Amino acid sequence: APAPPSSRYPRYTREEVGRHRSPQDRVWVTHGTDVFDVTDFVELHPGGAEKLLLAAGGALEPFWALYAVHNQPHVLELLREFKVGELSPDEAPPDPSAAQDPFAGDPPRHPGLRISSRKPFNAETPAELLTERFLTPNELFFTRNHLPVPAVDPGSYRLRVEGPEGRVLSLSLSELRSRFPKHEVTATLQCAGNRRSEMSRVRPVKGLAWDIGAIGTARWGGARLRDVLLHAGFGEERDGEWHVCFEGLDADPGGAPYGASIPYGRAVSAGADVLLAYEMNGEELPRDHGFPVRVVVPGVVGARSVKWLGRVAVSAAESPSHWQQNDYKGFSPCVDWDSVDYSSAPAIQELPVQSAITHPRPGAAVPPGELTVKGYAWSGGGRDVVRVDVSLDGGRTWSVASLAGERAAPGRAWAWRLWELRAPVPAGAQLEIVCKAVDRSYNVQPDTVGPIWNLRGVLSNAWHRVPVTVTR
Amino acid sequence: APAPPSSRYPRYTREEVGRHRSPQDRVWVTHGTDVFDVTDFVELHPGGAEKLLLAAGGALEPFWALYAVHNQPHVLELLREFKVGELSPDEAPPDPSAAQDPFAGDPPRHPGLRISSRKPFNAETPAELLTERFLTPNELFFTRNHLPVPAVDPGSYRLRVEGPEGRVLSLSLSELRSRFPKHEVTATLQCAGNRRSEMSRVRPVKGLAWDIGAIGTARWGGARLRDVLLHAGFGEERDGEWHVCFEGLDADPGGAPYGASIPYGRAVSAGADVLLAYEMNGEELPRDHGFPVRVVVPGVVGARSVKWLGRVAVSAAESPSHWQQNDYKGFSPCVDWDSVDYSSAPAIQELPVQSAITHPRPGAAVPPGELTVKGYAWSGGGRDVVRVDVSLDGGRTWSVASLAGERAAPGRAWAWRLWELRAPVPAGAQLEIVCKAVDRSYNVQPDTVGPIWNLRGVLSNAWHRVPVTVTR
């Protein structure tokens, strides 16, 4: 057998690679036996410069095991541009068992979930099941995890609430249950990336390819955040701009927890119904949904409803978390990864008006006669949905759908409205079914997705369009 | 000369006409010497059945003098279908001086205003002047009157505030000024019909043909409605759904005042900044803008900011006023005057996100080189505008405009943001300039106006499109 061609790249030891841990010293990483100088990529890293620097001077594999979004061909391709060398043949390959699977402790899941990533686990409710019930069953509720699911012992669990003037409250689960009245709220949670896959069809975006099921509605039970904050010594009002910051017990290899914040006014408002929830649809919180305690911020993007809640603190600044500062923000379609400035856009809080068709599904063949179109509609900020218009001809003519359920208290419409429309459809017709909702402030959904396209594929709320064929 | 043909219609006396004043007895009216049976039209009357019944049994002229919207050819044409007779030749024609012009006492106006109706007076700020200053000068601020401007003597003026348990507060102007702290708020008011003329181009609508200038921003000074309500004996919270109803001192010939209401929660909220204003941009309120006292409800459709305020009352129901119940509501494009059910839609309160281009104007020819595009952007509910996207090619590609001014306190962004974009434009190009704004809850404007068309032409907030030619 012929000898392998000798590499044209210089050889380095792991110890040599380990000297390159900062932009001053250059930032080197390894993947397999290849060595990369990614200094020029640090500031462009979609996950944030700090996250990439955690891996500086060493192997990428343990981090990629955690952030499985990297396991895509284009990531390796991008990396290849930065190759500067290879590990010396004397260096042992990285021990696969050393990169122990941090997701090994994740809970079992319902097989009916549509999985968009396994590690971390992200999965949505199948569209066909989404509007079968007003309350989404726990085991079919969409799951959006950023990190491995932490294993929390309910007996030793403590929620740390940092009060004013350095006072700290440490609440066990039973204290949280017994010291504060239980408050129940029916609220819809929606991921900022719901319906991202429609946006990807315009131009590629970074993020999980959600269909229309990264949304669900549950009856949440827990202590009001307001009650806990007042108990900790905070007042109804605070001069100036303040934020309530949440940290999860889920953390990355550097020890940084998932985190997010909401404005103080919302956190302390009786009308905003923000919960530290320990129940979901009458059951203990499932592990995937934040056992033993999660935040539920009604009317606000799901990313702020921090799961596995470990710490609550009040700060003059928003959460320093990557997910508050450098993710979950909206940008103009003209902004790309070279020009994006995360400090220029506000962190998403209230979401815009949204609706989607759950039945029939795109590409379906339906019999002639009466067609029943079904879907959901919801808006952020407690603004109730006042109307859903449905078109069978791509938006040329419209009918008004019937909304199920009852009107919520003004400004506290936290739950979706399910809707349906029955209409005669002639044999052989090609339909483009479209829905659009109107909320209490008469905001509407945009006609098309292109003009709201953004590099992270969030806030995808254009008219939902479902092409359908009527059989003969 | 030949004799005129004898009419084929029966002849009636005014006294005979006067017996037909209700649907049971049939509803007859006269116009000139013609007699009409409008019974079948009563329920279809766009101004409401009650308004038409005020004229039952008599002449239309005194009412049409007030509601000058009737002085249009299609109204007479519609009326002709209901002709059932003519007045007896013995009846004297109606005395024109009897229908004295109720608008004779209206104040003088700035000649620069673009008038959309003289009686009642409705006029907008010319687009070219709209964004010259952040605060709209009082004499150029758009005027939306529904009735003649009342002549109010400030010395004898009393504001009637109906407190709980039958207690009534009667406040003179000096008491309103001296008993309550003066509060100042910079707020944009926008008519629900702003940009209606774009909607009319899709299909005709009923209403004044506003261009983009039925919007303006002023620094309002007055007592907080909250302070007056608390002084009158109301509490911070009330169980159940309550409304604060306002009545103006402007009234129709039947004595019915202009009226509107807002939810109690907004009225009493410190953060909602609702004013009983007696100052506008540092001056006494002008007569056209409600002298001596008007309501200013920031973030809400102008129709609720009742001018010439006479009465404030708290009620379990919204204002019974025509303008609250049967006007200023949004409907699906599929709803027409035969199918409209005003009880099916909520009264407009918060308005959706809005923006428009003030420079250049549609059809303009601009020189090649650098073009400056200017405009305004605003959203309801105190949600600040976070971004304005501008396209020069009809929405295919976008740039981000520069917002002037500063970010407002969260949730209290009551004033518009002026914006501009400078862009190179090549000689001879045909541009379609487009703008669209994004507000704090990431709501956006719809792409096109057709799908938000509604029979009253309100809530017209599609992308603003301005075709422009670049000269050679």
Automatic annotation (TrEMBL), chains A, B:
Cofactors demanded by this protein: Mo-molybdopterin; heme b
Alphabetical list of SMART domains matching this protein: Cyt-b5
EC number, UniProt record: 1.8.3.1
Biased amino acid composition, Basic and acidic residues: 12-23
Location of this chain's protein in the cell: Mitochondrion intermembrane space
Pathway listed: Energy metabolism; sulfur metabolism; Sulfur metabolism
UniProt keyword annotations, A-Z: Heme, Iron, Metal-binding, Mitochondrion, Molybdenum, Oxidoreductase, Phosphoprotein, Transit peptide
Gene3D superfamilies recorded: 2.60.40.650, Cytochrome b5-like heme/steroid binding domain, Oxidoreductase, molybdopterin-binding domain
GO cellular component labels: mitochondrial intermembrane space
Residue ranges, annotated region (Disordered): 1-23, 87-121
GO MF terms, alphabetically ordered: heme binding; molybdenum ion binding; molybdopterin cofactor binding; sulfite oxidase activity
GO terms under biological process: sulfur compound metabolic process
Catalysed reactions listed for this entry: sulfite + O2 + H2O = sulfate + H2O2
Quaternary state and interactors: Homodimer.
Task of the protein: Catalyzes the oxidation of sulfite to sulfate, the terminal reaction in the oxidative degradation of sulfur-containing amino acids.
Protein name (database record): Sulfite oxidase, mitochondrial
